[in-house]
Amino acid sequence: TSSKLRGLGTTIFAEMTALAKRTGAVNLGQGFPDTDGPAGVLAAARDAISAGLNQYPPVDGLPELKSAIAAARADRYGQVFDPDGGEIMVTAGATEAIASVLIALCEPGDEVVVFEPYYDSYLANMAMAGAVRRPVQLRMAGDRFGFDPAELRAAITPKTRLLLLNSPHNPTGKVFTAAELTLIAELCVEHDLIAVTDEVYEYLTFDGAEHIPLATLPGMRERTLTISSAGKTFSATGWKIGWVCGPAPLVAAARKAKQFLTFAGGTPFQAAIAVGLRDELDWVAALRADLQERRDRLRKALTAMGAETYPCEGTYFLQIDVRSLGYEDGVEFCRDLAEKAKVVAIPAQVFFDDVETGRRYVRFAFCKSDAVLDEGIRRLATFT
Ligand code: PMP
Ligand code: GLN
Predict the structure, then answer these.
(1) How many whole angstroms from 8 Cα to the centroid of ligand 2?
(2) 39-280 matches 12-37+282-380 in CATH topology
(3) How far apart are CA 303 and CA 320, in angstroms?
(4) pTM above the 0.90 mark?
């Protein structure tokens, strides 16, 4: 391996899913649903294959999908991107969008401000791009996760190129508020930073929490690349259809990288996701309500077990503090939980530079069928 990748191990998700398979444990680790998305979307993919949509799509994606993405964002957020003017590009999941953007926009040594904990592919992609991460920690402040504005200010230096924001946030379940986003936007404008947002959980918010895209704040439309994905919205994580929206010159830069990563892909799935965005957003609203109920069901079980749980305003994930169960270290807790209770969770310290702080957090996924979630809950009750 090259020096760029030497520090990277196997992703925690592959590792923990393999552990679950090997030991017969219930997998509340990797965030993927185990029930299918809307029947109309599944049928649309089959129809697209039958209709011969099986060759390369355009690098930017099928025109019908780009139009559907634009229409969905305009409806939901009142923000218009031109699908024919180079403002939308379809990617192999949000993962490829994030990788393309970081590779395309960062010079070696450029700094990227990112909230910690952060999704694992960010670290790997920054390493590939030669960029340096500048984490700003999310901490409990009152009854929710927040950040210290002074710490955010201090993380921005003359070398800062990008600010990378994930909201709704994996793994904390935090949904950034209008006030927090306003501060972030002001700093991006003041320091002339490009913002990159990962909004893959944009539809999955709970208790009325509202997802606000950073690009809709004053001064941000022209400096933000907005990334999302169909995986979570339509419970189709294996289809890997994502996208990036933004000003044409920034999208064009990302396209330069993307065309030599995968070039293009997923033609029939692109067609099906266009149908989903047009016709199945009611299904997504029902999914959100269903996930909220599952979150509450899992929280009850974790609380009964004696665990202190953290708030969760969106995403698939609920975190606990393992110190409430007499542990100091999440990896050790996850090992014991898998061995004794046969339940797999994710030690969230892998999303931290500050491992000492990260050790206390363990993440559970509640995006699971009744059979899986309830069996997981039954087993949690046996853990002592
Ligand atoms: N960002 C975050 C925060 C995620 O949780 C995930 C995992 N679904 C991704 C990006 C990757 O998305 P995709 O599967 O569309 O590549
Ligand atoms: N995003 C998913 C999670 O956080 C995992 C995706 C993956 O396995 N790469 O669990």
Answers:
(1) 16
(2) no
(3) 9
(4) yes
Cα(54)–Cα(269) distance, rounded to whole angstroms? 10
ipTM over 0.90: yes
Q: What is the CATH number of domain 39-280?
A: 3.40.640.10
List the chain pLDDT tens, one digit each, 384 residues.
Answer: 888 888 888 888 888 899 888 889 999 999 999 999 999 999 999 999 999 999 999 999 999 999 999 999 999 999 999 999 999 999 999 999 999 999 999 999 999 999 999 999 999 999 999 999 999 999 999 999 999 999 999 999 999 999 999 999 999 999 999 999 999 999 999 999 999 999 999 999 999 999 999 999 999 999 999 999 999 999 999 999 999 999 999 999 999 999 999 999 999 999 999 999 999 999 999 999 999 999 999 999 999 999 999 999 999 999 999 999 999 999 999 999 999 999 999 999 999 999 999 999 999 999 999 999 999 999 999 998
Q: How many residues does the chain have?
A: 384
Q: Where does 12-37+282-380 sit in CATH, by number? A: 3.90.1150.10
Q: How many whole angstroms from 162 Cα to the centroid of ligand 1?
A: 19
C-alpha of residue 5 to centroid of ligand 1, in Å: 20
Please list the alpha-helical segments (H only) found in the chain. 12-23, 39-50, 63-77, 93-105, 120-129, 149-155, 178-190, 230-233, 248-258, 267-279, 281-304, 330-336, 355-358, 370-380
Ligand 2 binding site (Cβ under 6 Å of any ligand atom): 11, 13, 30-31, 170
* Mutation test residue for ligand 1: of 114, 120, 165, 170, the one with most atoms within 8 Å of CB: 170
